[in-house]
Specification:
Elements lengths: L2 H21 L4 H6 L10 E5 L5 H11 L4 E10 L20 E6 L13 E3 H8 L4 E8 L2 H4 L4 E9 L2 E4 L2 E6 L9 E6 L6 E11 L5 E10 L5 H13 L5 E10 L1 E6 L11 H7 L1 E6 L2 E8 L10 E6 L6 E6 L6 E8 L2 E5 L12
Parallel strand pairs: 3-19
Antiparallel strand pairs: 1-19, 2-11, 3-10, 4-10, 5-6, 5-10, 6-7, 6-8, 8-9, 11-18, 12-15, 12-18, 13-14, 13-17, 15-16, 16-17
Helix pairs in contact: 3-6
């Protein structure tokens, strides 16, 4: 090939690369060049959480949740097999050295995205020396997998080095559709796709059976959503003693407002109003299963106080906000107390945007 041929080929490859990266399209180039984050480059910061007896927490929530729901039942009981529908977890339970993991953070998404923040969650578990392990919760999905930004509902287990992948993603569909004219697409990730991106709030445990806190409520009469009502009840009672919980809840009846992130904004999102205008909102119907975490205080670690994402057999799913049919709503949740928070790769410069 002569020099003109080499120049032409070089120019073609540059144009192709820029087209793929600028449009967010899926490509061999994007896949092979998008290396996952090296967890050896940052320390893991750990702080202990306050862990009162389960029976005490049951009493606190039984009293506190009556401000928000007409029917309230809170018990400490053996966890049902969460591998069964509608939960479909990759482990039977939530227990065993339970901790909360806060990975990355909203500043990696807004005001402008940092695309290099791609995390391999299976590698994270190896780095932490956790096997057997369950990692379950809410985060941004692996944008290199589908080529666009998406919601992630993480449901991943490792046992003797073997990954069981039950995670889902939800993206705006069709890609590029205008707000108010779009739909959404839910997909289950394949076993070999264990990445997430940008931010995540996860329960880490051994996935074992055991006693958990079961919360079942119906008919919302207060202003808070299900998770906020739980967190506020704990905060009111325990104050500066920071409580952390992770787990799963199912919306058995009613409808909820969820958002689904569209592709990354081409312009900076500098205010909560900017973020709200960018997000796509939908009303979704039961049953929807949700995974996530809550914590009653920041502890100087730049924590997201609550974060739950949901998926369903009928295709509805996304980031949980609140129910839209308070008279009909029925929630059933199973939660475990966490003994500590692991803070990994926190943004050096932070803000409070995008944390609703």
């Amino acid at each position: 090939m002569n020099s003109l041929g080499f120049v032409g080929l070089w120019m073609f490859l540059i144009v192709l690369k820029n087209f793929v990266l600028n449009t967010g399209g899926m490509s061999l180039y994007a896949e092979t060049k998008m290396a996952s984050f090296d967890f050896n480059t940052v320390p893991v910061k750990e702080k202990a959480l306050y862990t009162p007896p389960l029976e005490e927490v049951v009493d606190v929530l039984s009293r506190g949740l009556r401000k928000t729901f007409e029917s309230v039942s809170v018990t400490a009981e053996e966890c049902p097999d969460l591998r069964k529908a509608p939960f479909d977890l990759t482990t039977p339970g939530l227990n065993g050295d339970a901790k909360l993991v806060e990975l990355g953070g909203p500043p990696y998404l807004v005001p402008t995205v940092q695309r290099d923040k791609v995390y391999d969650l299976a590698e994270l578990l190896r780095h932490l020396g956790r096997d057997p392990a369950l990692l379950a919760g809410a985060g941004a999905g692996p944008w290199p997998f589908i080529g666009v930004n998406c919601e992630g509902i993480v449901n991943l287990a490792v046992r003797e080095g073997v990954v069981a992948q039950g995670s889902h993603i939800v993206s705006v569909h069709p890609v590029g559709a205008a707000k108010g004219r779009s739909g959404y697409l839910q997909q289950r990730l394949p076993t070999n796709e264990t990445r997430s991106a940008l931010l995540g709030n996860y329960l880490l445990s051994e996935g074992k059976p055991g006693k958990v806190i079961k919360v079942e409520v119906k008919k919302r009469i207060g202003p808070s959503n299900f998770i906020t009502a739980i967190r506020e009840s704990l905060l009111e009672h325990y104050g500066d003693k920071v409580i952390g919980m992770g787990g799963a809840f199912v919306l058995r009846e009613g409808k909820v407002k969820h958002h689904v992130m569209p592709d990354f904004s081409p312009t900076p999102l500098c205010t909560d109003s900017d973020v709200d205008t960018w997000l796509h909102y939908f009303e979704m119907r039961a049953p929807i299963m949700h995974l996530g975490t809550l914590v009653t205080g920041d502890m100087g670690m730049d924590l997201r106080l609550q974060h739950f994402h949901g998926y369903s057999q009928h295709g509805d799913g996304g980031h949980y906000h609140y129910d839209t049919t308070p008279a009909e709503v029925h929630y059933e949740g199973y939660f475990t107390l966490a003994g500590a928070v692991l803070r990994i790769d926190p943004p050096a410069v932070t803000h409070a945007l995008g944390r609703d």
